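# nightly structure sweep
# worker-07 picked up a monomer target from the shared queue
# config: single-sequence mode, recycle default, output format = structure tokens
# input follows
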Amino acid sequence: MPVKMTPRFVSRITRDTLALILAGGSGTRLKGLTRWRSKPSVPFGGKFRIIDFPLSNCVNSGIRRMGVLTQYKSHSLIRHLQHGWNFFRGEMGEFIEILPAQQRIDAGWYAGTADALYQNLDIIRLHQPEYVLVLAGDHIYQMDYGPMLAYHVEQGADVTIGCFEVPVETARSFGVMGIDDDWKVTSFREKPADPDSIPGRKNEALASMGIYVFNREFLYEQLISDADNPESSRDFGKDVIPNIINHCKVYAYPFRDPETGKQAYWRDVGTIDAYWAANMELIGVTPELNLYNTEWPIWTYQAQLPPAKFIFDDPDRRGMAVDSMVSGGCIISGAQVHHSLLFSNVYVNSHARVDDSVVLPDVTIGRRARIRRAVIDKGVVIPEGMVIGEDPVEDAKRFHVSEGGIVLVCPEMLGQSLHHVR
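# output follows
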């Protein structure tokens, strides 16, 4: 039976929901991009950070009570939250709380996703939510959580899991759910070799988005039970969910476009190739992720910067950008930028050329430099005449080259200061 998609609305259900965003991930597959910052604080889309997407989804859904659970190298993330997300009104019951691993229950770090909530159980209880929405802080998507919460209530579920439909052959990289005809979850396996298919659709499987809706008391019981289990790894996907499927009401909620009913946009930008590709998608004429949708704005912290500027129009030195996104504070000085995304305060000097690249904030690209299919980290200064992305063998001697041939350039790779990186 297909799931009925509920139209967007803000109700008492959303107002009585506490959202907990798990933002402690180290993101090691992003290599140098997460050497000095956590994955949720990695810049994305020209002016945002990854954490801005789930947080904006909450605000746009009418959920204004949020906790962000941090752990790994969280300084830049905490600073971003303090600068860009401090507009909530406490007297109206709104808040965003930062919940670092602080040894509230024992002397350890967060051992897993379930343990992160368990160690903050007293704080969750203090807020007395009816429902707890658990979110991953490191995915890119735009989702109204209201219909999912309504679906959870309509089904009388103990827990509802957000999911998306993927080809069976690619499902092996995700947590995969088996369901019956009513979308009740019958199995949950992490990265299975033989994923269960959707009933009636043998070539498609349901992958978990890392989004869970829990009834309050049910969550408390499961967290305590999991903490008392010495065999548990303290993780929702590996332990909590598989252990409750046979005797509790666990339902799947497919993430679809509310207008078309088709699979909605969702990206895990956990590798350099995926991160580069997701940024490159934004440059397209009609990208799946619409950052220009005024009905669903993405909130963030942004410095007060002048407009981007393009200077010189000589035959051999023309400042121009084609099929590109260029953020505030950038100066393209007699250089050419093609099919690239430039974050704020990027300076591209005369006769330089940038193609198919993602350039993070505060980067300077020297005269006559050539950059192709690269990700340039924040604060990098590319020396005059340097060539990147044309010779994989030479690139690998100095930089990180991904499986897909994307070159990652970080300040320390060029022996430069790291003070701008965060």
